[in-house]
Predict the 3D structure of the following.
Amino acid sequence: MALRSEPTARQVRLAVELRRLRHAAGLPAREAAALLGVSSVQISHIESALAGVSEERLRRLASHYACADREFVDALVMMATDRTRGWWEEYREQLPTPFLDLSELEHHAAFRWDVDFLHIPGLLQTENYARVLFSRRVPELTQSEVESRVRHRMQRRTIIGGPSPTPYEAVLHEAALRIRLGGKATSRAQLAHILELSEADHITVRVIPFDLDDFADVTAAMVYAGGTVPKLDTVVRDGPHGALLIDSEAQLNVFRTLFRRVERVSLDPERSRDLIHRLTKEL
């Protein structure tokens, strides 16, 4: 079987978790290879996401690694056997890979948390707001590139607007709501859109007001995608060369704590809606 030339983030995560299980068991790759009757090179390919692994082999490895967490192993099996070709694949030749990885991550997420200080999170953006953001990228994008990114961003919203929506919570700083992009009309429509979405039972929007004293818990945007089990949660942070996916348990605990802190100091949903409504009327 040919090796994968460009594994998806989900395939890479499965490979990472299998490697972690083997390392935790203190076993060399050659022992795992002997168990499956393959070469050490094949184990290397599996643990590098260059090759897949069957359910039977994955369960044998997990048992040999003394992993007693059945829910975790079942979740890994789902990752290994899922052959779904997501809608984002149509953009594979149009957009950078991190865009597709984020779509795949969101599609499989059990829940989503966002924290943002300067911009409206992508899942809450209107088409015009997104278009303004992409049109101001440096280096400048072509019109075709801008439109591809806008279409992709709008399709991402299906996870909170489709028939089986994902529970979603966003914590926004008041600055993100006040910064005007594309003029008053675009900003007004964007705020109205957030108000409309916040009425849904599965969507919670909270605002950190300007007048909050001594707040410096989080200084950059954060996307937190819940996995089928907590061990498979993922944090996405924007970096200078693209999105950075964080999945170590220690770091996940840090970001869980940070999110709970910003959630605790933010306004409750009703007061947040009141603030957004007031800002809308001021435009």
